[in-house]
Design a protein that fits this description.
Helix content is about 40%, strand content about 20%. The protein is α+β, with helices and mostly antiparallel strands. The strands form five sheets. Strands 7-6-8-9-3-10 form a six-stranded mixed sheet, with helices on both faces. Strands 1-2 form a two-stranded antiparallel ribbon. Strands 4-5 form a two-stranded antiparallel ribbon. α7 (about 140-150) packs antiparallel against α8, α8 (about 155-170) packs across α12 and α9 crosses α10. The protein is flat, with a radius of gyration of 32 Å. The two termini are about 45 Å apart.
């Protein structure tokens, strides 16, 4: 039994008294009862809920401070009146001069202005785009196995293994692969990786800018997420150079963070928009299939070949209030938990080297609750 499991158990010796029947009649008997200890609730409560409560308290602090004061003042003045006298005072006897009305209106406007200006800015999703390659790159499940067999890089056992994985993976017949994957030459090269990156990223960004009618120079924040392929110059630099973005654009390139980086990229873009009002942010998520392709017979390395396909997605975020009428969604909640301190979670994302010394880092984090 593991050490941490032993700490959760509490043994207890129970006196069962003297038995009057059976083989142990006339003797004092005992039994050992093992039960789980009461958990330490102080350690089990996640700090993220404390953080959410603190933010809720700060965002609604004006209401919590002004409403009790108004209630106390109103109660002190009108507490001695009966209900009929109170309605009569409010409807018939109320006589306010201009100074009182202006003072009340000034306090009301000031309170609302402070509330809306001090609170966090709303982040909107104006539109999104998903890259769809040409039909000549479309590969069905049967074609994938036949192309793998025709390449001559896999034995029959490896082909049967990939066939079983593809059949149960949920990958359909409308997926795409780059042509260099099944060629005789090595596809895991920097040249092929850059070509695939430029194809998918520029294709979906062209669609996104066309749909939103936003110029690339209007974008103030750019976040690109690609876990495995991280060249120099970076992918974000490729986008800035291709679209000739402005010189003060905030550019970030996330790498080696696995499937959780999609949420991290949105979180980073939101934080940048909170610090830079009246701005646009573009978040790009992609992965290079050709650079990650494994053309040998190790079964543990063949699994990514069966799951990953060619594609890219991009979203345009905004914190401009003038865009409220045309947005699709509003970012309400974004919660993520980093489990890297837990060795079991850290070990769950294995890091293995390809035969070409290519590091394949597959990292998975907890599910997130994001409402866009």
């Amino acid at each position: 039994m593991a050490r941490n499991e032993q700490d959760l158990l509490s043994p207890e010796i129970v006196n069962c008294g003297i038995k009057f029947s059976g083989p142990n009649s006339g003797s004092l008997t005992f039994s050992v009862r093992v039960q789980r200890c009461i958990p330490d609730f102080l350690q089990s409560v996640s700090l993220k809920y404390v953080k959410l409560g603190y933010h809720y308290l700060i965002n609604h602090g004006i209401y919590l401070a002004t409403i009790p004061v108004l209630v106390l003042v109103f109660s002190a003045e009108e507490g001695s009146l009966r209900r009929e006298e109170l309605w009569k005072k409010l409807s018939e006897d109320a006589c306010y001069d201009l100074a009182t009305v202006l003072s009340f209106f000034t306090v009301f406007v000031f309170t609302n202005s402070v509330y809306f200006m001090s609170g966090p800015r709303s982040v909107y999703l104006i539109d999104f785009a998903c890259f769809r390659p040409h039909d000549d790159l479309k590969v069905t499940k049967e074609q994938f196995i036949e192309m793998a067999r025709a390449s001559g890089k896999f034995d029959e056992a490896s082909l049967q293994f990939q066939k079983r994985i593809v059949k149960s993976s949920g990958v359909g017949d409308e997926t795409y692969l780059p042509k260099a994957v099944m060629s005789e030459e090595n596809s895991a090269t920097m040249k092929e990786g850059r070509f695939e990156a430029s194809t998918v990223m520029f294709g979906e960004l062209d669609e996104l800018f066309e749909k939103t009618r936003i110029r690339p120079k209007d974008v103030g924040v750019l976040v690109v997420n690609c876990s495995i392929f991280n060249p120099t110059p970076s992918l974000s630099a490729m986008i800035i150079n291709h679209y000739k973005m402005r010189g003060n654009v905030l550019s970030y390139n996330l790498g080696g963070m696995g499937c959780s980086a999609g949420l991290i990229a949105v979180d980073l873009a939101r934080d940048m928009l909170q610090a830079n009002p009246n701005n646009y942010a573009v978040v790009v998520n992609t992965e290079m299939v050709g650079y990650n392709w494994y053309p040998w017979r190790d079964r543990s390395m063949l699994v990514p070949n069966c799951f990953f396909r060619m594609g890219c997605s991009a979203v345009l975020l905004s914190n401009c209030r003038r865009d409220y009428r045309r947005v699709k969604y509003s970012l309400e909640h974004l919660v993520r938990t980093h489990k890297g301190a837990d060795y079991r979670s850290f070990r769950f994302g294995p890091s293995v080297f390809f035969h070409h010394s290519c590091l394949d880092c597959l990292t998975f984090c907890d599910q997130f609750n994001a409402t866009l």
